Each structure stands twice: as structure tokens, then as C-alpha cells.
Amino acid sequence: MSIKRTVLFTCLCFAIIIVGCRKEAFDAYYGRPKGLASPIYQQLDSMGDFKYFLSCIEKAGYRNTLGSASSWTVFAPTDRAFQQFMTENSISDTSQIDKKLAEKIVRTSMIYDGERLEKLGDYFHSRGWIEGLGFRRRTVYYDFVEDEVQSDGKIRKIISTNRGAGAAYIEAENNNKHITYFFNAYMSSNGLSATDYKTFYPNSNYTGLNVLGATIDPARSNIIAENGYIHVVDKVLMPEPSIDQYLRSNSQYSEFKNMLDFFATYNYNATVTRKNEVLTGKRDSVFVKGYSSIAFALNNENYIKEDANDAQMNNYSVTIPTNAAVRDYAKRVLLKYYPSGTTIKDLFYSNPIVLSEYINSHFYNTQLWPSRFTSQPNIGGEVTKLTPQNIIESKILSNGAFYGVNSSQQANVFQSVYGNVLLDPKYSFMRTALERMGLHITLRIPTIRYMLVLISDEKLYDMGFAYDAYNTSDPIRFKGGNGTPEMREIIMSHIIPLEADPIPTLSGKGILESFGGEYVKFDNMKLMSSGTQDSAVDKRYVKIDSISIGNSQSGPLNGVAVYLDGALTSSNTNTGFLLRNLGADKADSPYNRFYRYLIASSLYNATDGIVKGVDIGANYTLLIPNNEAIAAAIANGDLPAAENTTNVVLKNKITLFLQYHIARNSFAIDGKKQGTFETLCKDVEGNTQVVEVVTNQNNRLQIRDNSNNLVEADVAKSNQLGQRIVIHSLSGYLRNGI
Fold it and tell me: Taking the model in full, what pTM does it have?
């Protein structure tokens, strides 16, 4: 028995020795290393001048968080900073700082991940660190459920969206606020100066180590702790409001905010509602507030979220006009074409695009620095027409830069020819058609000039057009069928590129080429197209009611808008019948002898008036030798005397002669197009023959043929319009050389 006891005792001692040895090895490997810095809380406590901040940490319930393992960057305000804060906010002692205020202070001072100051200047992209791009960081602080006062005075419980306009709210993410810092390395590399900082924080000194309005003490920064880094600051950091929150609290921008409210969305969220009930004991429905149909959500703290941390290197910016500025612009521009008494609300329900365009013109999807106020393009690519003198206040808010201004942005879209269509409700159908066809994009560019002829809704309806939003194949209808092709033809005839030319003097006389390649003639404040030419005599020219040329306050600056008493249509008359309508079948017409050869040739179809080779939808120029020129061609042996000859060789000569006088593409006598133009004529090897427009002036046209002869046009009998055709009368004929 004693032997057993001895063995057991020996084993027990041996086990104790082994365990003791292993514990020593475990502690040596996993134990707290000697020389390891204390956690943030303990270090602040040992420094001696952070008793107020430590008190807030305890009230906020963050003592354990900051006193144990993790990774944080803390901007720690000194007791002196707290005393200043308490004086500014009429707080006599720390007992008046409740848990809610303490949480705001502490959580705003904390940002995720412990970083040295040098590293805060880098952007942590999903692919790794990118040096020099960072100037913002996500804090621990976020708002939860807020009260929002509705227009009827009732309170609605909301939580701000954490994504952009029109995007779904992500329940798993908090809408954490960000703080902005101004470090010398970032400022210098981006060409920024103390003035940029002082514009936002006029009562703070710029040192190149600033976070919001506070200064980081360079001698007490980069203090390493077990769970991060401490940077001592001379001011208490508080969470800034978002742009949305600031507008809700500032009545001098209420008119603009009221516009924004039309685009606000409210979606009930059961998860947040339940969470709020648990926290407050109140069974209030909570709605996620977001935005749609405008550029971005003003309450989203997360920037674009193309990358998880893209808010580290950018944010939104806004220029918000005062109430007086909004009312002035609404009267001068937005409601210019509406009857007296029309409200912004009426405008939203009739044409919300006008409001979204106006709102978006004040938005920037990047940080707008004061020094770049007049050069940084907004979200639409436009540089503001305002000056720094228009700025009444500048702020860095939690999700962007805010500029209060005393004037609205003069948006390019409203000072373009497209603006006349967009703003005037009488032309809403034309606007819809332009937008569906994508033609509005070029019409709103300030550097591309146009003459836009407006067609009223009433006229389009009279022509047989209608709009059916429920017809998904083609909501634009024409006489019961799909109408987009016909509408496109009409619309493109009403868009006339001006390029570098001056605005035409429409009280004079001339010809203009439309966007679709068809020509329009003007004469003493009247317009004529190939289609109006086809109609009754008194409608050949359509009267111009008025023209709109812009100035610095309103109206188009990229051309002229023309208001017409009707519409410019395209001809449906085929070439042969067109010539007949122009009197070519009459002996005294300069086109007569050419016409007789044409209708007797194999190129012509007498049933429908179509000339072979002249394809519908393409542009052509008919260069018709006058009767004397045809006689000269006969005398020179370039044409047989008989139009209806049965001789195969002579018939081919006639065909080639006719084809050589029909050029592909159209050109008018207007001082524009010159150069070579292909004709319908080909030699025996299939080579297309060309003519060359040598001289093209407003009152002269010269054409060189294959034999190097120059032929003059008879200007008075030229510039006749047809179905994508321009007709010129020539004083001679063109030799094809075949």
C-alpha cells in the first residue's frame, strides 16, 4: 500500500513540474510583452490633463473599449480644450455633460484603426494603400433614429440612408460620420493653402496639422498605445451635421430644401423600427429617408461606395442659394413660361426634370475647395458663373463641403436652345421626343451652337402624333402606328447647326442645312422646307412668330430658339414628280430639256416618279444644265438629239450624262461645302465619277468636271428643295469624260 502511495505521490509531483514548465512557456509566448505601451485609456489617465475626456469616456461606456485590445486612432482633447468647450456651450461642470453628449464627443474623437499621422494621409483602397490621397476618416459616431418635422407639423421618425440616390438602404451598415483633416503634405501636393482652411475655419489657426477646427499638438502626436495611437488636440471634436441635417436646421435655405423634399423618399423599415422600439420602448414606425431622381442623397455619409473606403479621399459638395435667390431664379427662369400664380409644387408635378436640373446644377461629386470655387466643374461638368463674393458661408460638414450663396447657379441647360423646350410646357412633347432620341444632349452643350425651331404640342397632335406611355414598343405614335421614325425626321429638320457662323438674320433671305442634312430656306421672317413647299401655295413659307436670343439672365447662349407658326416637314414627293411640280414639264422652265431626257430614260419610273439610284433616305444634289446648256451638249455630240432614241449606245450615253449630273450628298449655294462629290455615274470598270465644287459662296457656285471645265450655276434658279434633294440650275453642262 505504501508503495502505491509512493508511486502516486511521485506521479503527482512529476505532473505538477510538467504543467508548471508548460505555463512558463505559454506565458513566455503569449503573455504581455515587456515594454508594450499601455492601452489608450490608461495612457490618457497617466498623462494627467485629460480628466474631462476620461470622464466622458466613462459616461459614454467606452472605458473598456479604449482600455483593452483593439485598434483605434483617438484625437484626445486636453482639459484646457474641454474648459473652452464648456464655456462656449454654457456648461458649468462635467455633471451637465450627459451620456448622449459624452457619446458624441468620444465617438467623434475615435476613428477606426490605429494610424500614425503620416498614414492618415493615405487612402486605404481595396487593392491596398494609395499614398497621399486621404484627407478624411470614418468615425465611430453615427446617428440612429431622428425626428423630422413634416410640412403639416407632424413628427416623422426617420433614419438616413447609407447609400446614394435611388440605391437601397443597407441594414447591416451604420451611416458613420466622417471627420476631415488638413495636413500639410496633402494640402501642398494639391495646391491648397492656409486660405482654403481658413475659409472653413476662420477662427482657427492653420498649422498643417488640423482636424476640423482643432490643431494637433506635434509634440504629443503619434503616441503609440497597445490598442492604437493618440493624437492630442486643442479643441473638443463634435459630430458635424450632414448636408441634409444642416438644411433642415437652417431656415435661410428653406426654399431650396422644399425643392429637395419633392425628391425625398420614405420607406418603412421593420428591422430599424423593432430596434428602435427595443432601445426606446416606443412603438413608432421608422422610415428610411433617401432621395431619388437627383444626383445624390444629401444624408448619405458613405460617398459613392464604389470602394468601401472611398469617403477617405473624397466627398460631395454643394452650393445652396438663399431663399431670396431661389425665388428670384424661379420667377426669371423656372416659371418664366407659366401663368401667374404657378408654384414650384405645380412645376414639380408637371415637369419634375426642370427642378432636378436646377438642383443638380448646385451639386459637386467631389470636394470643392475655396481656391477652386470658380474652376471646379459641378456634377454636370459646368463651372459656376458665381464668384467668391456670392458666398455667404462655408462649412465642412460630415459628408461634404457646404457653401451658402446669394445667387443661383446659371445652369447651362436653362441657357441653351434646349432650355426653351425644357422650360416651356407648350413644347413638352418635343422635349420628350428629343430626350428619347438623345438629341437633347448636344443641344444643351454651351459651346455647340444651334438654331432650334420649336414645334408646339398642339401642332404635333394636329399632324397625327400622339404619346402613349403604356405602349412599350414605341410610346410615340403616328396615325395609330409607331411614330418614332416620322418624329425623328421632323425633329432633325428643326435642328440647324450654326457652328462658328453668326445667328442668321431671319428677316433677310438665305438657306440653312438642318441636322438631318435637309435644307431649310428663310425669307423675311418665314421658313420653308421641302415638305411645306409641297403643301398649298399660301403655306409654302411658314411664319416665324418670334425668336429668342439669350442674355446673362436667361435665354439661350448657344444659338437661337425660333418659334414657328407650324412645322417644317419633309417632302414625300419623288424626284420626277418634284421636277414636274417645279414646272419642268413646261417649255419655258430651265429644267425642261433635262427633264425630258430623264423621263424618257431607263432611269425613270413613270408610275411613282422614282429615279433609279436616288435612294429614299439619302441626300442628293441635282445639277441640271439649263436648256441652252443641253443644246450645247447636243451640238458637241455629248447628247443625242433624240431623247427617246432606241440606239443602245446612245441610250447609254444619255444615262451616263444624267447620272453624272446627280451628286451623292447635298450641297446648297450658301458658302459652305466645297470639294469632291461622288455622282451616280460609273465608267466601264465600275469607278465612280466625281465632280468638284470649286467655289461656293452665298451668291456663286462653280463646279469642275472630269474634263477640267468650270461650270457656273444660275443662282436665281437654284437652291430648290425636294425629298432630301437640292436642285441647282447650271449655265453649262458637266462632261464625264467617258
Answer: 0.88
